[in-house]
């Protein structure tokens, strides 16, 4: 009985370690996906609040709301989004040195049938991945 309990504890510790050891790309992708849903839902103020310090330093919440609102008004509602690529660039143009993951999606909107969205996440000092940049072409 005691041996079974020890095996269970070891198994639980192993599973916990695997969860904590999740790849940075997976954690960054999760952060990007959570963030972009806020933009899809027109929650621009909340998306700015949940973005990285780098993002917030590049533009005020008012500037982001104006830009995001204008972009989304032109695009119309999102129809689909499919992950197409994840990269870990050494540097990102226009952003300070840091650990970045770029998540690219092929997307479709009401007024633009084919678009490429790039969400760039950065690892912040507290260990959280947050969005540092967002582009749509």
What is the name of the CATH topology? Nuclear Transport Factor 2, Chain: A
Q: Low-confidence segments, ≥5 residues, pLDDT <50? A: 8-21
Computed over alpha carbons, the radius of gyration is: 18 Å
Topology order in helix (H) and strand (E) letters: HHHHHEEEE
* Net shape: globular
Compute the separation of the termini in Å: 61 Å
CATH architecture label? Roll
Give the percentage of residues in beta strands. 25-35%
CATH superfamily: NTF2-like, domain 1
Number of helices: 5
In terms of quaternary structure, the protein is: single chain
Count of folded domains: 1
Helix-strand category = alpha+beta
Mean pLDDT: 88
Sum up the structure in keywords.
137 residues; 27% strand; globular; Nuclear Transport Factor 2, Chain: A; alpha+beta
Q: What does this protein look like?
A:
The protein is of the alpha+beta class and 137 residues long. The chain has five helices and four strands, in the order αααααββββ. Helix 2 (24-40) runs antiparallel to helix 3 (44-50) and helix 3 packs across helix 5. Residues 8-21 have low confidence and may be disordered.
Summarize the SSE layout with pairings.
Layout: H1 2-20, H2 24-40, H3 44-50, H4 53-58, H5 61-75, E1 78-87, E2 100-109, E3 115-123, E4 129-136
Antiparallel strand pairs: 1-2, 2-3, 3-4
Brief overview:
This protein is α+β, with helices and mostly antiparallel strands and 137 residues long. The protein is built from 5 helices and 4 strands.
């Amino acid at each position: 009985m005691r041996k079974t309990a020890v095996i269970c504890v070891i198994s639980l510790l192993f599973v916990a370690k695997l969860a904590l050891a999740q790849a940075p790309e997976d954690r960054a992708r999760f952060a990007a996906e959570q963030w972009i849903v806020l933009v899809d839902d027109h929650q621009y103020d909340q998306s700015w609040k949940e973005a990285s310090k780098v993002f917030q330093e590049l533009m005020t919440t008012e500037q982001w709301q104006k830009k995001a609102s204008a972009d989304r008004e032109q695009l119309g509602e999102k129809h689909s989004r499919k992950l197409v690529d994840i990269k870990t660039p050494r540097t990102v143009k226009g952003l300070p040195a840091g650990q970045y993951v770029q998540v690219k999606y092929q997307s479709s909107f009401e007024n633009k049938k084919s678009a490429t969205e790039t969400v760039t996440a950065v690892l912040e000092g507290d260990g959280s991945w947050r969005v540092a940049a967002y582009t749509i072409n």
